[in-house]
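Would you mind writing out the residues of a protein together with its fold in token form for me to study?
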Amino acid sequence: MNRRLVQFGTSIFTEMTRLAVETRSVNLGQGFPDFDGPEFVKNAAIAAIRAGESQYCRSAGLPTLARAVAEHRKRFYGLAYDPDSEVTVFSGATEALFSTIQALCEPGDEVVVFDPAYDAYRPSIALAGAVARTVPLLPPAFRLEASALSAAIGRRTRLLILNSPHNPLGKVFSREELAAIASVCRERDLLAVTDEVYEHLVFEGEHVPLASLPGMRERTVMISSSGKTFSLTGWKIGFACAPRDLSAAVRASHQFVTFCTPPPFQLAVAAALAAPDAYYREFLDRYRGLRARLTEGLARAGFEIRPPAGTYFAVADARHLGGDDGERFCRDLPSRAGVAAIPVAAFCEDPAPFRHLVRFAFCKREETIDEGVARLERAFAA
């Protein structure tokens, strides 16, 4: 095995999913919906397959999807991107992140990440020969301390990765926090890579792309995907918007990773992105109800919890239930309660401040959440 990967071991998602299957647990750990995506999107994919759209296509993505992405960015955020030279399609947002990091980092460069961090960031940085520099978002408020961000920037710092809405914390970065990040990027001449896959899952506040702040469009690679917004996570359709020079670098990397992404799904996602405003409102309303269903249930079971501002994850304090060590708590939970969850410490370089926190997913049917909550209530009944 590549020595740069040895330190990362097996993904926590792989481990917890295995335990969930072995114990027939309700899987509230991994963030995939257990309900299907919209019929009109699936029908668009079927129509594309029947029309013979099944061969290799342009590596940067089908022009139809590139135009749809550019129109979506303009429609929701007022950001203008040229679909031919500034929009690139990937096989999922994780591939977009990987290809971008490989394209923009040299060995020895430093990359700022906010802890906890989505588990693909650090391995991607390591495989580029770069070094992750961590800025913690400490509990209970998970606020960004501008002084901690400034302290993490060094002579070799090249890149900053921002995930908002944030997985696993459910945090939505405020305008004040975004302004502080943008200021540091401009002053220290950093590039920014933004992971915005939960952009349409904001319950409190608003989603503000970092690229929309003054001086940031020209130094930002803005990444998102269709999986979360349209409940089609297995299709793996991601996309990135960036100025021409950054897009060219990212495309050079992407062509040697997946080369191209399945055309029928690209065409279906193009149709999805053009959905009317009513779709996005109903999508958010549904998740607002699921968020309340899970967080209220977890509170009844004895967890200390605050509803997340965004994403479809809720972070719970397990200390009242003996969960001072969240990793042990989550490993025991499938056999004890028949429920799977993810320890937040697994996302952290320094797990100590987060070791009592557990992440639950509410991208599940009402009956799935109800069954999971009922099992937890029985397991932790006084």
Remarks:
- The CA atoms of residues 201 and 250 lie 27 Å apart.
